[in-house]
Design a protein that fits this description.
5 helices, alpha+beta, single chain, 4 strands
Length: 154
């Protein structure tokens, strides 16, 4: 009789442990999925091509390639306003607030991310070296934007 109770207790203990692992694993999976969903939905990405009134060929090319990249790969984000793209004349006084917010001093491609940790801005200078190869430019910028959408600032 004692042998039967010991086996039953061991079986009950094993099943309890197994159920605990299954339930705990489900909780981890659900919270990870929620974290990923929340991290992208509470983030706004602003991409601005700042240019002068009379920009050079390279300035114009950066703006064209950036716009093409954003429109091609992020139409849903543009539609639901989690991403903003625009060409901004930094010499026009009506844009002074945005110029100040991004600290613009000349032609530039600026990316701003507003998320749980506040506002992060950066000037992407690498695009200046990629204007000679449109595919390389687009691939580079898409990778950068994808990382910002995922919350990475590396």
């Amino acid at each position: 009789m004692n042998q039967i109770n010991t086996q039953a207790i061991k079986r009950y203990f094993f099943i309890s442990i197994l159920i605990s692992f299954v339930c705990f694993g489900s909780l981890i999976t659900c919270s990870s999925a929620d974290a990923i969903t929340n991290s992208t939905s509470d983030r706004i990405i602003e991409i601005y091509h700042f240019h002068p009134t009379n920009g050079c060929h390279t300035c114009t090319t950066i703006g064209e390639y950036a716009e093409e990249t954003v429109k091609k790969y992020y139409p849903a984000e543009l539609e639901n306003k989690t991403m903003i793209f625009d060409h901004i004349n930094f010499q026009d006084p009506k844009n002074a607030d945005l110029v100040k917010k991004f600290g613009v001093t000349g032609s530039s491609l600026m990316i701003g991310v507003t998320g749980p940790s506040g506002f992060h801005k950066e000037e992407d200078v690498k695009v200046w070296y990629k204007t000679g190869n449109k595919d390389e430019f687009i691939s580079y910028l898409k990778g950068l934007v994808d990382r910002r959408l995922a919350g990475s600032f590396e």
